[in-house]
Amino acid sequence: MSQISAEVRERVRTDASNRCGYCLSQQKYVLGILEIAHIVPKAAGGSDDEENLWLACRLCNSYKGTQTRAKDPVTRRTVNLFNPRLQTWEQHFGWINGGILIEGKTDIGRATVGALQINNPYAVTVRQAWISAGWHPPDTFSI
Where in the sequence is the domain holding 32, given as residue range(s)? Predict the structure, then answer.
């Protein structure tokens, strides 16, 4: 049972601008409620403190699981995954192919794209539909 209060949940949603901290999927476009996710999973010693919480879509959160670190495919170094509460999305990621794919621009970005399978076939298909509808990519990336 979650010990996260309704007030904290609402503040996290507001702070995250109602979108996934990893792939930037907006709540109004996803089927299902964006999840309150632990940046450092409880299984890895994380807490329910607000500073350890952010929004994530079901796909990103499920692929993240208990991971906190992953290998950058370019440098082969193991690095911390992107922290949407403390780091800036634009510094670590960018849109390519007209917004269909998310590219990691740093070791953290590349490791996170791979670990969370951010460009999985489902996400790519949905982004293509959002682009066709004029909903994507977001005008602003800052959360």
Answer: 6-133
